[in-house]
Design brief:
The complex is a heterodimer.
Chain A: H1 3-35, H2 40-74, E1 77-78, E2 86-87, H3 91-99, H4 101-133, H5 139-152, H6 156-165, H7 172-183, H8 185-210, H9 214-222, H10 240-250, H11 253-264, H12 268-276, H13 281-292, H14 294-309, H15 313-318, H16 332-342, H17 346-374
Antiparallel strand pairs in A: 1-2
Chain B: H1 2-19, E1 54-60, H2 68-83, E2 87-93, H3 96-109, E3 115-118, H4 123-126, H5 134-137, H6 150-155, E4 157-158, E5 161-162, E6 164-177, H7 178-183, H8 193-203, E7 205-207, E8 210-217, H9 225-234, H10 251-267, H11 283-286, E9 289-294, E10 310-313, E11 329-338, H12 345-355, H13 358-368, H14 381-384, H15 386-398, E12 399-401, H16 408-423, H17 429-446
C-alpha cells in the first residue's frame, strides 16, 4: 500500500473512532442520568456535554490512565524484553530500595543536585532579576541575554558546546578562570578555596555513598590546592555534579522572569515608607522585597525541585563519552532510562518511575506543608 | 612480491583468532594462503528483486565522517539501486555510545533498521534475535563466502547459522614514537609492565597542572576495559572459569588491574591533573602522546612519514611474576547483521553480498584503516602500507579475537564503574576485584547463564 494511502486510512479510522467513542460515551452518560431520574431536557444536555468532552476523556484514558496502570502492573513483574512479564510482587521495589547500590547512588546524586542546585538557581535568578529591575540603558538587551539560555534550551547541540567549554585543559571556562586568576591574585586564592570546598564536599559525599572515605582523606590532607589548579569539570568524579549544577544555574532564565514579574508587583510606596523610617537597602530587601516576592520564590522552588528530580538531558549528554565516571553523575531518571532502554528491563524501569513519582509527591507535599510558615500572599 | 609474503602473515594471523573463540558452528577448513580469486565488483543477478518499492535501512557505527559515509551514500547505494531499482538504501549513523540502546529499542519495538552494524563481541548478546542467513549466505547459495577468513565467520555464526557478514578486522597493539622515547633517554618501546610504567613516567610532561604530553594514551584516562581484558589474557589468565563463572579472583586479573593503576599514576601523578585537550587528529602524529594502545583509526594516516619513527609492540607482559605471559594483540571483527524482525531479509542479504564484494570491502577498509575480512580483498594498501604489514605480522603471531563476552553491556558497565572507583582512589584493589566478581556473577545468573 502507498504510504500516503496508509496515512489517510489511519486518519479516517481515527476520526471514526473519535466519533463512535464520543457518541458511545454520551449515550452511556445519558443512560446513567436516566436511571438517576433526570428530565428529558437535562438528559440531552448530559449527552451533548459528555459527547463533546469525550475526545479528551478518551484520550486521557487511553494515553494517561492506561499507561499509568500498565506501568504499575509492570513494576510488579520481571519484564525483560523480549521475554513476557512474570509477576514477582514487590521484588523490584525491594531490590531497588535495599539491594541496588547504583540506584541508591543515583538517588543520592539527584538529592545532592537538588539541595545545592535549586538554591543556587534561586539566588542567581533573584540577583539577575534585581539587576534587570533597575532602570538602566540597554535593559531589553540584558533581559534577552539572560533569558537566551532558556530559549536555547538544554538540547544536545547546546550541551555538546558545554562539553567543549568544560574541557579542563583548554576549555573556555578554565581559560577565563586562569586569565582572571593571573590578573588578580586575590581571585586565585578564592578559586583555590572554591576548588577545595567543592572537592572536599564531593569527596565526603562519595564517601557516604560508597562507605569508603579514602578519597576524602586524601583531599582533606592535601589541603588547599596549588595555585595552578583549575576545576576538572568533566574529568573527575568530584566535579561532575558541580558541572551539572552550573548548567542548571545557567538556564535559570524562567525563574528570573517570575522574579522580575514579582518584583514589579511590589508597590513602590512600601519602599518609600521604609526609607522615611530609616531602613537601609539591605533592610528594605530583607523585610519588604523578600516577603512580598515569597509566592514567586515558592513557585520557583516547587517547579525547580520537580525539574531537578526529573533531570535527564544534562547527565545524558555530558556523561556519554565518560562512561567510567558516569556513575558519579547518575540521576534517578538517567538510571530509569538506563534500566529501561539500555538493558530492556521494563519492569525494573517501571518500579523506578513509581519510586520517583512518590519521591516527587512527598517533596511537593512537604513544601506545601511548610508554605504557610514563610509564604505571604497578602500585601 | 614482498607484499605478497605479508598476505600470508595476515591470513595466518586472522586464522589463529579462530582458535581462541568458542566455536558456534562447524569450523570451515582453514586456508593457509589466499586462493587466486578475482576481485568481485558486483554479485551475479539475484531473483530477490522485490516487485514493490522497498526501503532498506542500514544502521552504521563503523564509519569515518565525510569519508565512508559519503562512499556508502554516493557510490554504494546508487550502485545497488541500479541492480535493484525498487530498493532504496538509507543509512542511519550512530556511535558506540548509543549503539546498544538504539538496537535494544529496535528489538523492543520489533521494528527498526534492517541491517545492524555490530561489534566483535555481540553474537552471544543478540544471536537469537538476528535472522539466520545460511540460505542466503551459506556456501551453497553464495560461493564467495568461502573467501571470508574462517575466524571472522565464526564471529558472526550462532547456533550453526550465519547471522551476518564480517566487514572489518581491526587489531589493537601498542605504538610508540621512538624519537620522543629517545628524548627521554629510552632506547626502545616498553615490553613489560615495569618498563611501561617507567616509560610513562619519564615521557609524560605536565605544565600548569595540565598534561602537555602523555606517556601513553588509550581511551578515557587509561581506563580502557578492553585493554584490561587484553592484559589479563597476556598474563595467561581468562575472564571465565571452565564452569562459566567470572575469573576476576585470579592473580592475573589482580596484577593487570594493579598495573593499570600504577601506569595511570605515572601519567597522572594524582587525579587533579587536567587531561590532554581534545584530539584534533592523531595524538601520535602531533606528539601529545608518546605511545598509544589501539588500532590504526587513532593512528596517523598509513602514508604519513611519521611511521618511520613509530615502533610497534604487540602487547605488555610481566615475565617476572608470570613466566608464561605472552603479548596479546586484541582483534576486533565488526560485522553487519540482519535483524530478525526485518521484513526484508532476502533483499537485506542481497545487500550484504553486494557490500561484501572484494572490491567494496577493500575500499571500505582502506578508508577505515582496518583489514578486509575477505582473503581476496587483501590487496593494494594492505600489501603496500608499512603499518598494515606490521600489524598483520603482529596479528599473525599474537592475535586473539575479542569475542564471547557474555552480557556485554552490563559487563562493560560493571568494569567501567569499578575500575573508575579504584583509579580515583575511592576503593582499594581487593574490593574492586571482589565487586567485579560478585556483580558480574549476579548478572550472569540473572541472565540464566549460570545456575
Amino acid at each position: 500500500m502507498e504510504p500516503y494511502r496508509y496515512t489517510l486510512l489511519w486518519a479516517a479510522g481515527t476520526v471514526l473512532f473519535i466519533f463512535i467513542s464520543s457518541v458511545a460515551l454520551g449515550a452511556i452518560a445519558r443512560g446513567i442520568a436516566q436511571r438517576c431520574g433526570y428530565s428529558r431536557n437535562r438528559l440531552e444536555d448530559v449527552f451533548a456535554g459528555y459527547a463533546f468532552a469525550a475526545p479528551w476523556i478518551v484520550g486521557f484514558v487511553l494515553f494517561v490512565v492506561a499507561p499509568v496502570l500498565t506501568s504499575l502492573y509492570w513494576s510488579l513483574t520481571i519484564y525483560r524484553l523480549p521475554n513476557p512479564p512474570v509477576f514477582v510482587g514487590l521484588a523490584n521495589y525491594a531490590k531497588l530500595l535495599f539491594r541496588d547500590p547504583d540506584f541508591r547512588a543515583a538517588l543520592l546524586n539527584t538529592l545532592y543536585i537538588a539541595v545545592f542546585g535549586v538554591p543556587a538557581q534561586l539566588v542567581v535568578a533573584l540577583a539577575l532579576a534585581i539587576l534587570l529591575n533597575q532602570r538602566v540603558r540597554g535593559e531589553g538587551f540584558y533581559r534577552t541575554a539572560f533569558y537566551l539560555p532558556v530559549l536555547l534550551g538544554t538540547n544536545a547541540a547546546v550541551l555538546l558546546s558545554w562539553v567543549f567549554m568544560f574541557n579542563a585543559n583548554t576549555g573556555f571556562l578554565n581559560q577565563i578562570l586562569r586569565l582572571i586568576a593571573r590578573a588578580f591574585p586575590p581571585f586565585q586564592e578564592l578559586l583555590r578555596l572554591f576548588i577545595f570546598i567543592v572537592e572536599s564536599t564531593n569527596a565526603a559525599f562519595l564517601g557516604i555513598q560508597t562507605g569508603n572515605f579514602t578519597l576524602f582523606q586524601r583531599v582533606w590532607q592535601a589541603g588547599l590546592p596549588s595555585p595552578e589548579r583549575v576545576p576538572l569539570w568533566l574529568e573527575n568524579p568530584l566535579w561532575l555534579k558541580a558541572a551539572i549544577i552550573l548548567l542548571l544555574v545557567w538556564s535559570c532564565g524562567n525563574m528570573m522572569l517570575i522574579y522580575l514579574a514579582a518584583l514589579n508587583s511590589v508597590p513602590p510606596e512600601f519602599y518609600e515608607a521604609a526609607q522615611v523610617d530609616g531602613a537601609g537597602p539591605w533592610q528594605r530587601f530583607r523585610y519588604i522585597t523578600l516577603p512580598l516576592i515569597s509566592p514567586a520564590t515558592f513557585y520557583n522552588l516547587v517547579v525547580g525541585l520537580i525539574a531537578v528530580l526529573q533531570l535527564f538531558e544534562q547527565p545524558y549528554v555530558l556523561l556519554r563519552d565518560r562512561p567510567t565516571l558516569a556513575q558519579s553523575g547518575y540521576t534517578v531518571v538517567y538510571y530509569l532510562w538506563r534500566a529501561t532502554f539500555r538493558f530492556n528491563e521494563i519492569g525494573y524501569g517501571a518500579a523506578i518511575s513509581w519510586i520517583l513519582t512518590l519521591l516527587i509527591l512527598i517533596v511537593t507535599l512537604v513544601q506545601f506543608r511548610l508554605e504557610r510558615r514563610w509564604v505571604h500572599y497578602d500585601l | 612480491m614482498r607484499g605478497k609474503s605479508w598476505i600470508g602473515w595476515l591470513i595466518v594471523g586472522i586464522l589463529v583468532l579462530g582458535a581462541c573463540q568458542q566455536p558456534a558452528a562447524p569450523s570451515p577448513t582453514p586456508t593457509a594462503a589466499p586462493p587466486p580469486a578475482a576481485p568481485t565488483a558486483v554479485p551475479s543477478p539475484s531473483p530477490a528483486a522485490p516487485a514493490k518499492p522497498v526501503t532498506l535501512k542500514v544502521l552504521i557505527v563503523d564509519y569515518v565522517k565525510d569519508k565512508t559515509d559519503k562512499w556508502l551514500e554516493n557510490e554504494v547505494a546508487p550502485a545497488f539501486k541500479q541492480k535493484y531499482p525498487n530498493v532504496n538504501v538509507e543509512f542511519i549513523y550512530v556511535n558506540w555510545g548509543t549503539l546498544d540502546e538504539t538496537i535494544q529499542g529496535y528489538f523492543a519495538a520489533g521494528e527498526g533498521a534492517d541491517i545492524l552494524n555490530l561489534g566483535s563481541e555481540y553474537i552471544a548478546e543478540y544471536g537469537d534475535r538476528l535472522a539466520p542467513l545460511n540460505r542466503y549466505l551459506g556456501p551453497d547459495a553464495w560461493p564467495e563466502i568461502k573467501q571470508f577468513i574462517p575466524a571472522t565467520l565464526e564471529t558472526v555464526t550462532w547456533k550453526g547459522e550465519i547471522r551476518g557478514l564480517p566487514w572489518l578486522v581491526a587489531p589493537r597493539a601498542y605504538m610508540c614514537r621512538t624519537d620522543l622515547l629517545k628524548e627521554a633517554g629510552i632506547e626502545r618501546a616498553p615490553r613489560t609492565f615495569k618498563e611501561a610504567i617507567e616509560q610513562a613516567r619519564k615521557t609524560t610532561i605536565i605544565e600548569g597542572n595540565a598534561l602537555k604530553r602523555a606517556g601513553i594514551v588509550t581511551t578515557g584516562k587509561l581506563d580502557d576495559w578492553q585493554e584490561y581484558i587484553a592484559l589479563i589474557w597476556a598474563l595467561g589468565g581468562e575472564i571465565y572459569k571452565p564452569n562459566g563463572e567470572p575469573a576476576f579472583d585470579s592473580p592475573q586479573a589482580k596484577a593487570a588491574l594493579k598495573f593499570m593503576y600504577d601506569r595511570r599514576r605515572a601519567v597522572y601523578p594524582d587525579e587533579t591533573v587536567a587531561d590532554l585537550p581534545p584530539a584534533t587528529g592523531s595524538r601520535l602524529a602531533d606528539g601529545t602522546a608518546v605511545c598509544i594502545w589501539g588500532n590504526l583509526w587513532g593512528a596517523p594516516d598509513v602514508k604519513d612519514p611519521i611511521w618511520e619513527k613509530i615502533e610497534f609492540v604487540p602487547g605488555l607482559t610481566d615475565p617476572e611474576n608470570f613466566p608464561n605471559s605472552k603479548p596479546v594483540v586484541q582483534v576486533f571483527t565488526d560485522w553487519l547483521a540482519v535483524a530478525g524482525y526485518s521484513k526484508n531479509v532476502e533483499i537485506a542479504a542481497e545487500f550484504l553480498k553486494f557490500l561484501g564484494s572484494a572490491e567494496n570491502l577493500n575500499r571500505y577498509n582502506r578508508d577505515f584503516g582496518s583489514f578486509p575480512p575477505r582473503k581476496d580483498a587483501q590487496t593494494g594498501y594492505v600489501q603496500e602500507a608499512k603499518p598494515m604489514i606490521t600489524m598483520a605480522q603482529l596479528m599473525a603471531e599474537y592475535g586473539r579475537g575479542f569475542a564471547d563476552i557474555r552480557e556485554t553491556a552490563k559487563f562493560r558497565e560493571i568494569l567501567q564503574k569499578q575500575m573508575s572507583a579504584y583509579f580515583t582512589d575511592q576503593q582499594d584493589l581487593d574490593t574492586t576485584l571482589k565487586n567485579i566478581q560478585e556483580q558480574y556473577t549476579q548478572v550472569l545468573r540473572e541472565a540464566g547463564r549460570l545456575p
